[in-house]
Design brief:
By secondary structure, this protein is of the alpha/beta class. The chain is built from seven helices and six strands, in the order E-H-E-H-H-E-E-H-H-E-H-E-H. It has one domain: Rossmann fold. Helix content is about 35%, strand content about 15%. The chain is globular. The structure holds flavin mononucleotide. The site of flavin mononucleotide has 16 residues, from helix 2 and helix 4.
């Protein structure tokens, strides 16, 4: 069983974290641990109709962002790694400086100290030099800096295509290669956003 920690922060693009979990749910060999910040829940309400219960239901275990004693805050909790998507400037800066006062930054710091894979889907633009310095620091201590920047060579036809492309690339970083390439509503393919994997006809 592969364990993956997903952190969702209050940057815009909650859908990236949600979609990552929906995609990973197509593989029964993956166990998902979710931690969502308080700001993430606020941003979610503003940009999506998805219910929090639905999102929590995608994870095998949901951790309270204030629960610094959760399993994922210990190095003895083994996982393939962690993806913070989307990652706010606040959380990115906290991780870069070792300021681990909440569970997302603590779990991320643990991943780095244990030399596992941390993927930081930073979402802000434009970036000032303070952001860039923190990102450089974070890259130096081993994180994968992964701004979810769309590609166009694959001719995305929808927002879903754009989100999925970034998510698949993030999962590549964890050596998770899902069998079916996600295609909106395709029979036997991956479910669309908000659609449970088990509801897709195969
Ligand atoms: C609708 C909305 C969009 C936001 N977008 C971003 C963003 O793209 N990047 C960012 O760094 N912060 C963004 N913020 C601000 C963060 O939510 C805020 O800095 C928060 O304190 C981050 O806390 P967290 O990292 O604990 O989730 C946004 C806030 C709202 C309400």
């Amino acid at each position: 069983m592969k364990r993956v920690i997903v952190g969702i922060t209050g940057a815009t693009g909650t859908i990236y974290g949600v979609r990552l979990m929906e995609l990973m749910r197509t593989d029964p060999g993956i166990e998902i641990h979710l931690v969502m910040s308080k700001s993430a829940k606020l941003t979610l309400k503003m940009e999506h109709d998805l219910e929090l219960d639905y999102i929590n239901g995608l994870a095998h275990e949901v951790h309270d962002p204030g629960n610094i004693g959760a399993s994922i805050s210990s190095g003895s909790f083994h996982s393939e790694g962690m993806i913070v998507a989307p990652c706010s400037i606040k959380t990115m800066s906290n991780i870069a400086s070792g300021n681990t006062g909440d569970l997302i930054s603590r779990a991320a710091d643990v991943i780095l100290k244990e030399r596992r894979t941390l993927i930081v889907a930073i979402r802000e633009t434009p970036l000032h030099i303070g952001h860039l310095e923190n990102l450089t620091k974070l890259a130096r201590i081993g994180a994968v800096i992964f701004p979810p920047v769309p590609a166009f060579y694959n001719r995305p036809a929808s927002l879903q295509d754009i989100v999925d492309q970034s998510c698949m690339r993030m999962l590549d970083q964890l050596h998770i290669h899902l069998e079916s390439a996600p295609r909106w509503g395709e029979k036997g393919g991956v479910a669309a956003v908000g659609q449970k994997p088990e509801d897709v006809a195969i």
